[in-house]
Amino acid sequence: MHDPIPVLTIDGPSGAGKGTAARAVAARLGWNFLDSGAIYRALAVAAMDRGVSCEDEIALEALAHSLDLVFEATAVPRALLWGADIGDRIVTEECGNLASKLAAFPLVRRALLDKQRGFRRPPGLVADGRDMGTVVFPDALYKVFLTASAEVRAHRRYKQLKEKGIDVSLANLTEEIEERDRRDRERATAPLRAADGAIVIDSSALSVEEAIQACLAVVGSF
Ligand code: C5P
Q1: What is the pLDDT of residues 36-61, one digit of tens each?
Q2: Pairing relationship of beta strands 78-81 and 84-85 according to DSSP bridges
Q3: Which residues pair with 33 in a beta bridge?
Q4: Alpha helices, DSSP H only, in 141-192?
Q5: Is the confidence at residue 83, as pLDDT, over 70?
Q6: What is the DSSP letter of 222?
Q7: Ligand 1 within 6 A of 116 CB?
Q8: How far is the CA of 18 from the centre of ligand 1 (A)?
Q9: What is the model's pTM?
Q10: Does the C-beta of 156 come closer than 6 Å to ligand 1?
Q11: pLDDT tens-digit profile of 141-198?
């Protein structure tokens, strides 16, 4: 019998530094990378473009099944939706908030399971999201729950968006982050929580490099 392909799941709330850390950890291990949030965000973009209501679970489920989404592993990663580059539309707060609404529907989550599991290819996978260790890859060998205080997370997100030239107010952002967290934690299907056995890392006082090292330490690689 073959050993299963190793998976490191990195779950946690928005702004905990998961995206940056998970991508870097995958690159250093030479493993594949899954940004599951980008799949929910791409679905939100598709719903906006095709006029599908964010209340219509059945239509969203069909859209999720038909989603033709490819991530190009270029220096600045590109997401192609039905062959078209969706560029920065995927990173806006509007898109993140809509994604979190769609993500609360069980049929939508189920429709996206196979797509996510398809990223598990040799030699390994680093999977970033909310339910990677609890639902999508429950048998993952390594599990991390990366978190940080809400205040630190709002500041980080603020800086990130500013750098991208996107104008936001810190107060609005903090409110939106808290609301999104609440929705992700309180939803009935796949709520945000640390998987059993996950190593909890609080990145509030850690630099990016320290957070990367802490994740690498979980897979026994320094
Ligand atoms: O991680 P990111 O902020 O890009 O995710 C956007 C939204 O997608 C999250 O707020 C969450 O509601 C949803 N999501 C999810 N499960 C995942 C990844 C993201 O529900 N595995």
Answers
A1: 999 999 999 999 999 999 999 999 99
A2: antiparallel
A3: 126
A4: 150-163, 170-186
A5: yes
A6: -
A7: no
A8: 11
A9: 0.92
A10: no
A11: 999 999 999 889 999 889 888 888 888 899 998 888 888 888 889 988 888 999 999 9
* CATH, residue 158: 3.40.50.300
Ligand 1: does its nearest atom lie under 6 Å from the Cβ of 9?
A: no
Residue with tokens 């908030």: 97
Q: Does residue 1 form part of some domain?
A: no
User: DSSP letter at 134?
Assistant: I
Q: What is the phi/psi pair of residue 13, to 5°?
A: -75, 165
Contact 219, 29 (CB under 8 A): yes
**Domain total in the chain:** 1
Examine residue 2 and state whether it is found in any structural domain, yes or no: no
Residue whose structure tokens are 């509030």 = 204
Average pLDDT along the chain: 92
Type of residue found at 15: G
Look up the domain containing 116 and give its range.
7-219
Residue 60 included in any domain: yes
Q: End-to-end CA distance of the chain, in Å?
A: 29
